[in-house]
Amino acid sequence: MTKTMRAVQYSGYGGGAAALKHVEIPVPTVKKDYVLIKVEAVSINPLDWKIQDGYVKHILPPRFPHIPGTDVSGEVVSVGHGVTTFAPGDKVVGCLGTFGGGLAEYALAHISTIAKRPSGVTALDGACLGEAAFSALQSVRDWAGVQLNGSKPKVPMNVLITGAGGGVGTFAVQLAKLGGVHVTATCGDGARQMELVKSLGADEVLDSKAAEGESLKSPSGKKYDTVIQCGEYMPFAHFKPQLSPSGKVIDLAPSPKSMMSSATSLASFSKQKCVPFLPSTNSTDYYFLFSLMQQKKLKTVIDSQFPLSQAEKAWAASMTGHVTGKVIVTCTEHS
């Protein structure tokens, strides 16, 4: 195996796509409980460039230079000491977390963060999962309480999904509809994106730039039991008029402002709450998502695809905020 690899990295906070540098560096050395993956594809998440902007630098500063990229798909080429559940040749997907490393030809992954990719799930599909799919699945199932076992809710449930055209939103709409709930969705990138979200199962789709979308009011007059907030920050007070008496907002991108709203709502006597949310990586959820994809109950939406040599274009596309689904970087010729 080659001793060096192509990678994309940055050496400090800020700078956006222009700060990304193409380098040739040594292939990482595999260590205990890790595998070395030959990366086929990696998706760009908003969290990737928010880390570059210093979004979490007070709690988790990356070491510089830093290779970004969280959600990867590829093939195991070597395993570390103590690894018995994976072997060279296994096709896998992985969620590398905020430590990144995915924008490269090879990446290290702890065995707790990867899963074997089954036939019928492509490398591109696998790279779309990770942070986005975990956020959608866990917020819909675990926090909104939507049952995904095929049974309909005993009591009708109404869910609002904001930013439904993005990477998380496109998964959240599909998953919520699998649970038999009524889904109202908002998106802000035109009629084409609205039609796509409708095709994914949304019962009502609002243009977030129009008056009705800004008000979040359901055209059918329904109040929301749960809001899955995938879009840009909005104050909790903006949601409250459209919530049911015990409705809650699940904030998938907690910020200092939203954390303050959450603390205030949780301390109040009101049953309406704002709940901050962060996803957790686990192989059980990966295999559940694979199963849905193999049954054609869940599909990925890819906005655009770039080779590793053009990673900065993928980065810039994601940073615009006008992305439908996921932005993918391919790291091999056969992805």
Automatic annotation (TrEMBL):
Cross-referenced Gene3D superfamilies: Medium-chain alcohol dehydrogenases, catalytic domain (3.90.180.10), NAD(P)-binding Rossmann-like Domain (3.40.50.720)
Instruction: Give the matching SUPFAM superfamilies.
Output: GroES-like, NAD(P)-binding Rossmann-fold domains
Query: Mind telling me which InterPro entries this protein's record contains?
Result: ADH-like_N, Chloroplast_QOR, ER, GroES-like_sf, NAD(P)-bd_dom_sf
**Enoyl reductase (ER) domain mapped to chain residues:** 15-329
- PANTHER family of this UniProt entry? ZINC-TYPE ALCOHOL DEHYDROGENASE-LIKE PROTEIN C16A3.02C (PTHR44013)
Q: What is this protein called?
A: Enoyl reductase (ER) domain-containing protein
